[in-house]
């Protein structure tokens, strides 16, 4: 198969869809890989490293989209990229379609076969292609929150761990999955007073077993969230209903009643955010203030630590890339129900129920059109 890897163009996005060693796996199996010039340059992968792995370097994204049967990316395609997609071309990347109608409409129009990393599932009920980036973003969320609490960023001027004789900051994490668990690990490590809220008792049980008395766990209700958020110095938003727009668990009224100078890091912003006052920001200008509360809502957090993130992401995606390249999308999807869960759009039809519901569009079960 001909596989194309364009350079990412989102603000401060230095990740790349494939590292040179992954390219080599593909070329050793007889596939052709085309990579855009300088696609990995931001994180130390030279064009020569890709050539040595057997890839061909092309000067522009247009050439990559024109030649490739499968496009492998990291972030959702921006409008200029969407315009280059072709009927029956495979697009394998993060999509986050539920909060993004313009992208959904463009992908439907393209006729492409769009498989979203974030809705691919596994046998243990996990999301194996979201997990590595949630680990990164969960860990980063506490760094970002610690900065937001500094006076110069609009925060209350608090150190997360406090010091002897001064109490630590209160960190409340909404959602105890991958993001929440990794946020808890770092916040506990920094000495903060940490509480995780989840609606899954199993998630709370797992967290309790992992962190013991260092972590408080609370069952998620609107009342519990309100009480905790009003006492919090830092709130981390890490909830997810796979494929769907994030539920707005923190209302603008709650935000208005939060302590002045407190901070919210809404990691769930890629699915629209779980805080009513959240709107997506960029690494260039990551925070803004509403009602004296600092909001950090960067939708591509792992892009800031792009080298770590690219290795972590590509280790997870490579087996699926190899499978799609070897079998083609029809056979690969028909033989792997977990990969099939990743199929969001195909030949002008919406095949992800949650995305269809989010936009009030027609849902077509993938098995009826494959
Ligand atoms: N901004 C960024 O750069 C990044 C954002 N993310 C996003 O972070 C979010 C979380 O991802 P993961 O942790 O991997 O998901 P996950 O599926 O591992 O965890 C989500 C948790 O939310 C819980 N939950 C759902 N509804 C809830 C409710 N009403 N109250 C409390 N808890 C609730 C679930 O029970 C689950 O434990 C996703 O939207 C993901 O796309 C992930 C990576 C990077
Ligand atoms: C998952 C996601 O949105 C990211 O890694 O940027
Ligand atoms: Mg206030």
UniProtKB/TrEMBL annotation:
<dbReference type="InterPro" id="IPR008143">
    <property type="entry name" value="Ala_DH/PNT_CS2"/>
</dbReference>
<dbReference type="GO" id="GO:0000286">
    <property type="term" value="F:alanine dehydrogenase activity"/>
</dbReference>
<keyword id="KW-0560">Oxidoreductase</keyword>
<keyword id="KW-0520">NAD</keyword>
<dbReference type="Pfam" id="PF01262">
    <property type="entry name" value="AlaDh_PNT_C"/>
</dbReference>
<dbReference type="InterPro" id="IPR036291">
    <property type="entry name" value="NAD(P)-bd_dom_sf"/>
</dbReference>
<dbReference type="InterPro" id="IPR008141">
    <property type="entry name" value="Ala_DH"/>
</dbReference>
<comment type="similarity">
    <text>Belongs to the AlaDH/PNT family.</text>
</comment>
<dbReference type="InterPro" id="IPR007886">
    <property type="entry name" value="AlaDH/PNT_N"/>
</dbReference>
<protein>
    <recommendedName>
        <fullName>Alanine dehydrogenase</fullName>
        <ecNumber>1.4.1.1</ecNumber>
    </recommendedName>
</protein>
<feature type="domain" description="Alanine dehydrogenase/pyridine nucleotide transhydrogenase NAD(H)-binding">
    <location>
        <begin position="149"/>
        <end position="297"/>
    </location>
</feature>
<dbReference type="InterPro" id="IPR007698">
    <property type="entry name" value="AlaDH/PNT_NAD(H)-bd"/>
</dbReference>
<dbReference type="Pfam" id="PF05222">
    <property type="entry name" value="AlaDh_PNT_N"/>
</dbReference>
<feature type="domain" description="Alanine dehydrogenase/pyridine nucleotide transhydrogenase N-terminal">
    <location>
        <begin position="4"/>
        <end position="137"/>
    </location>
</feature>
């Amino acid at each position: 198969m001909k596989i194309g890897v364009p350079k990412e163009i989102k603000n401060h996005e230095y990740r790349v869809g494939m590292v040179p060693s992954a390219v080599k796996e593909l070329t050793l199996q007889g596939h052709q890989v085309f990579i855009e010039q300088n696609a990995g340059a931001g994180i130390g992968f030279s064009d020569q490293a890709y050539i040595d792995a057997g890839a061909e370097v092309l000067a522009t994204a247009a050439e990559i989209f024109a030649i490739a049967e499968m496009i492998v990316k990291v972030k959702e395609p921006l409008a200029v990229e969407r315009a280059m997609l072709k009927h029956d071309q495979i697009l394998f990347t993060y999509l986050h379609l539920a909060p993004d109608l313009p992208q959904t409409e463009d992908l439907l129009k393209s006729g492409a076969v769009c498989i979203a990393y974030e809705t691919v599932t596994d046998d243990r009920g996990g999301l194996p292609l979201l997990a590595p980036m949630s680990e990164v973003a969960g860990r980063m969320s506490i760094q970002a929150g610690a900065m937001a609490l500094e006076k110069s960023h609009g925060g209350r001027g608090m150190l997360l761990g406090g010091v002897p004789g001064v109490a630590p900051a209160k960190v409340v994490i909404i959602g105890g999955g991958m993001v929440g668990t990794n946020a808890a690990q770092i916040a506990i490590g920094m000495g903060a007073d940490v509480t995780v809220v989840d609606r899954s008792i199993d998630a709370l049980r797992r967290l309790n077993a992992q962190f013991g008395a260092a972590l408080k766990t609370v069952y998620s209700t609107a009342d519990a969230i309100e009480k905790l958020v009003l006492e919090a110095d830092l709130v981390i938003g890490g909830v997810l209903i796979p494929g769907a727009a994030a539920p707005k668990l923190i209302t603008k009224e709650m935000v208005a009643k939060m302590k002045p100078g407190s901070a919210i890091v809404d990691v769930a912003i890629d699915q629209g955010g779980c805080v009513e006052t959240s709107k997506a920001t960029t690494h260039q200008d990551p925070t803004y203030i509403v009602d004296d509360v600092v909001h950090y809502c960067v939708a591509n957090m792992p892009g800031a630590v792009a080298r770590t993130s690219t290795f972590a992401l590509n280790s997870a995606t490579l087996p699926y890339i190899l499978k799609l390249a070897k079998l083609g999308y029809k056979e690969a999807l028909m033989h792997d129900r977990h990969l099939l869960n990743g199929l969001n759009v195909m030949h002008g039809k919406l095949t992800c129920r949650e995305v269809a519901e989010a936009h009030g569009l027609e849902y077509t079960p993938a098995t009826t059109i494959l």
